[in-house]
Amino acid sequence: xxxxxxxxxxxxxxxxxxxxxxxGGPGTLLLNPAGYPHGPYVSQKGxxxxxxxxxxxxxAYTDFPAGPEICAHYLExxxxxxxxxTDPWHIRPEKAVWEGMTG
Length: 103
Fold this sequence. Notes:
alpha+beta; single chain; 2 helices
């Protein structure tokens, strides 16, 4: 989490799964207000991000229940297919994994 700054992120290439937020592909825009918790994130093919922040941004990572399991599920179960859109968290199969482990 960045306590003192806001952050704008544009995914230029690749894929990025963000539990509780969803899946992002090229062109996805993320806006993180100050204090927004970070992680876990996972990518199958890697990702190139363009990041802009409103001030220097020291980062503190937060614990996320079932985070490693969600990331492992994504890496093992999602086909290596190029996506061209963004999937919100509520339609991702990893949501059920997370709910089953934290519910």
